[in-house]
Design goal:
This protein is mainly α. Among the domains are: about 60 residues, 434 Repressor (Amino-terminal Domain), CATH 1.10.260.40; about 110 residues, no CATH class. Helices cover about 70% and strands about 0% of the residues. The longest helix has 25 residues. The radius of gyration is 21 Å and the shape is globular. The model has no long low-confidence stretch (mean pLDDT about 90).
């Protein structure tokens, strides 16, 4: 079995000459919890991973073992596009020559629309080989067009860089992910689409959140809320404006949960819940999932991030009773990546509560909904690895799943 997150925590703690007690104190957790993290009997929540990494003066990806270059990544071949994406992002304003003239913008836009759907559904393996050529063609069209066509080309180019950001982030190439976010900004600014520019800043704030830069991310997100308010035509909010604002509130809710501010998190969730009722259903304006279901998904994620896994599971049971089911069932039509992420969160919560059977069932649901997303997700790997270590009966199914996930 590959190195686990607990082993990496222990390794870097020793490099920093810290005791378990000293590290636990720095991240505001108990010594016994830290011992369980290092022993692999409990996995730290995403927010705790960031705090531990910050205390150890490393990036979270070092604890997560990213980028992954074994198992799933080697078999699926997604790594092969990374050098091409690096080259394209380096030459973004002085692109390499094309072997043939780029296709017309409507054709490229249709293909980028397909890529955007793949991104939202976590279909990284079929999406990856489409990106380099599509980004190159769109860049040439943007540089050689004028007027509205040029603005539209930059808009689609921004969406392409967003897909590149998602792919890079999921594979653990966080330096490339940050470069992609810069390119989203660059293209969005030239598109003339205000909400696309807001989305670019939203992505930057998300990257800050992942690295523990809570104050900076909070400042950007709250300023963006004001900016969307300003952009609304004569204070008449469209569903797109409401959905983008709601997505900003949900990101703020997760930020506050990870920063140890549960009351603030609950307040943002309440505001998002009101907007979701006005929007009237689950939407994906600007490729930002928002609606009543996503508010609930973030409510569960926030509770898990604060360590209240018992309450998170109780909410799922409560909402399930409202549906006449044992547990809340996600509605059909949600973006597959969003649904898969929820099942991954629930799996980690069930494992924290000692319910290994249901944790494994949640992992299998995540895989069924979006296999590429689940296979590349660090929480799937850490949860699967822990299940294997705790599985004294040596279940072939658990071992097979862990191998599939690259453990």
């Amino acid at each position: 079995m590959n190195s686990t997150i607990g082993e990496r925590i222990r390794e870097h703690r020793k490099i920093r000459h810290l005791t378990v007690r000293e590290l636990a104190r720095r991240v505001d957790t108990s010594e016994s919890a830290m011992e369980k993290y290092e022993a692999g009997s409990r996995n730290p929540a995403p927010g705790m991973v960031v705090r531990i990494a910050t205390a150890l003066s490393i990036g979270p990806e070092r604890l997560l073992g990213q980028p992954y270059v074994n198992g799933a990544e080697s078999e699926d071949g997604v790594q092969i596009v990374i050098p091409a994406l690096r080259r394209i992002m380096l030459t973004y304003n002085s692109p390499d020559d094309l072997d043939a003239a780029p296709r017309p913008l409507p054709v490229l836009a249709a293909e980028m629309e397909q890529v955007a759907r793949m991104r939202q559904n976590g279909a990284y393996v079929p999406m990856a080989p489409l990106l380099p050529g599509l980004l190159s063609e769109l860049t040439h069209v943007a540089f050689t067009s004028v007027g509205r066509e040029q603005a539209r080309a930059y808009g689609w180019l921004a969406r392409g860089y967003r897909a590149a950001n998602s792919l890079s982030h999921k594979l653990g190439y966080h330096d490339l992910s940050l470069t992609a976010i810069d390119r989203v900004h660059w293209a969005a600014d030239r598109s003339g689409e205000p909400l696309l520019q807001v989305t670019a800043a939203y992505l930057r704030a998300g990257a800050m959140l992942r690295t523990g830069s809570f104050a900076s991310a909070r400042r950007i997100l709250t300023e963006l809320v004001d900016e969307v308010e300003r952009l609304a035509p004569e204070q008449c909010h469209t569903k797109a404006h409401l959905a983008v604002t709601g997505a900003l509130y949900l990101k703020l809710a997760i930020l506050e949960a990870r920063d140890g501010q549960p009351d603030r998190s609950a307040q943002y969730l309440a505001e998002a819940r009101v907007l979701a009722a006005w929007v009237g259903g689950d939407t994906d304006h600007m490729e930002l999932s928002f609606g009543p279901s996503n508010v609930r998904i973030h409510e569960i994620a926030g509770l898990i991030d604060t360590g209240d896994t018992e309450q998170a599971l109780a909410r799922l049971h409560q909402w399930g009773e409202e549906q006449g089911a044992e547990e809340w069932t996600l509605p059909a039509g949600l973006a597959s990546e969003r649904s898969s992420h929820h099942h991954i969160d629930v799996a980690s919560a069930r494992l924290a509560q000692g319910d290994r059977d249901r944790a494994f069932r949640s992992l299998k649901r995540a895989r069924a909904v979006a296999p590429n997303h689940a296979r590349f997700h660090p929480t799937v790997r850490t949860t699967a690895a822990t299940l294997v270590r705790l599985d004294r009966g040596g279940s072939d199914e658990v071992a097979s799943f862990a191998k599939w996930a690259g453990v």
